[in-house]
Structures are given as C-alpha cells and as structure tokens.
Prior knowledge:
single chain, Immunoglobulin-like, 3 helices, signal, Carboxypeptidase regulatory-like domain-containing protein
Amino acid sequence: xxxxxxxxxxxxxxxxxxxxxxxxxxxxxxxxxxxxxxxxxxxxxxxxxxxxxxxxxxxxxxxxxxxxxxxxxxxxxxxxxxxxxxxxxxxxxxxxxxxxxxxxxxxxxxxxxxxxxxxxxxxxxxxxxxxxxxxxxxxxxxxxxxxxxxxxxxxxxxxxxxxxxxxxxxxxxxxxxxxxxxxxxxxxxxxxxxxxxxxxxxxxxxxxxxxxxxxxxxxxxxxxxxxxxxxxxxxxxxxxxxxxxxxxxxxxxxxxxxxxxxxxxxxxxxxxxxxxxxxxxxxxxxxxxxxxxxxxxxxxxxxxxxxxxxxxxxxxxxxxxxxxxxxxxxxxxxxxxxx
Length: 339
C-alpha cells in the first residue's frame, strides 16, 4: 500500500507541473513540426530525431526521422483526439548517446522553425567543478512518531557549452544530506514526461545515494536541471545538520504546520507560507556560501493530521510548477531574442 501511495503521488506531482507548463506555453501555427538540429551553431546532419506525444493518459514517441543536410528535419503531426484531454508534442535528438529536448508545442499546431541544440561531451573535472547550484528546496513534514519526512528539489546549472558525462571512476556531482537519514528514495524530476518546459524526466539510476551523499550519475546538458529525492529524519536525537557544500543561490526550507518547536540556524527568520490549504513556515537564505550548514533542532513531536508523504509530494509539485513557469519564461525570452 505504501509503495502504491508513493507511486501515485509522484505521478500526480509530475502531471501538475506539466499541466502548469502547458498552460503557459505559446502555441505555434502549422501542422508540421519542421526545423533543424544544430551543434555549436552549425548544422548537425545524420542524427536521430524522435517526435513525442503527451496526453492526459498516454505519453511516448510516435515518429522517428533523421536530420538531413543542413540538420533539417520535418515530421507531420498526428491527428489530435478530442477525448485525450490535452495533447502536446515535442521532439528530441540523440547525439553521442545523450538525448536533447526541443520545446513543447500544443496539439493541433506545429512549428516550422523548431530547433534542437546538441553539444559535444566532456568528462573534465574542471568543468564538473564549475557546475552551479541555483536552488535547493527542502520540505519537512512532521511524522507522527517525532521524526520528519523530507523531500528535496535541487536545481543545478551546467554553464559550460558541453554536456558533462560521468567517467568510469565516479558519478558527476554530489549533494550532502543529513547524517543518519533513512528511507532514501529518488523521485521524478521535471514533469515526468521528458518535456523540457518542466525539465527532463529523472530516470531510474540517475541519482544514487552513497553514504550521506546523493550523487548525480546522469549526463548534464548545458543549462538547468532539477533533481528530486526523499528521505526520513529519525525522531532521535531531535537535531540534524543540512550541509550546503556548494555555493547556492537560494536555499528554501519549508516546515509544515503544526509541527514540533523547531529552531533553524543558518537561514533567515521564518515567515508564513500557504499552498493548497496547507500552512508552512518558510526559512530562506540567499547567496549561501559553500561549506555552510543549516542547523535543525526540534523538541516534542506533534502528530501530523495528514499522511506526510502526500503533503511533502504536494509541495514538491508546487515547487516543480514554479520551476516550469521559470523555464517557460526563459524559453520565451530566448525565442524573442532569436527571432
């Protein structure tokens, strides 16, 4: 039963973020998806291009072509069924074993200037060390026995013009989590469909826990990428430390109310925050330096009135939706500059 609840909650979180992104995506005006694949601004011929369709109940590839001379491709859009609820399309291209995503277009409309950009790959440690953490959201839900259910969303930014791929000796990038945490579980990042508007799907094995670190083992394409994972803080010793090993633009800690009395060190003062009828205390830090620590100290458990897994995942969906909105806005701005 627990596994079914968690699975349904993850899918719900992904769908919410995806629907949010779709509501803000601008439709185009043709019935064919036609465009180019480029690498470093030059045409990239001979690459596999897949058309993906996502509806309320189904998702997956529906057509496949290869980019031709000049990197060009053209794929007719399949008919849209009114019973699908909503239908969107996007295309991907595979280069050097890495899949790259183009923007979303609404069903019934296409795009004749579609573009997918691919990149060369690197395993350079200097490039790996340049990966930047732009956001870390930590959601804490009090458990009925005094511990905490925790969901984290970490957004990393590869600012290089190459895709980082893991070498044979170690994963790419690590995030430290509190010592003594248990019940680690990786969750879906992005929208669960692979849509670039809300981030590519986080597939099994892309993040793994080794000791008290969560490692990214998946290729990191240029730009931002979200990763989601969950764990549990035990009721004893009623304190924990959240390490911030990498310089991070913003750290946001959400503590669901009611909760035990909790003291938070290393972030700003709390303020009330509400989402979908749930109340939280929000602690925020901006420009958090590498090597910082967020201290957590709580006393006296207060039972949570709802299943903490559902509450944590519900807020994760909200965080994903906010990220999707930012992705859409950046896409529009980039499109405006490109046009």
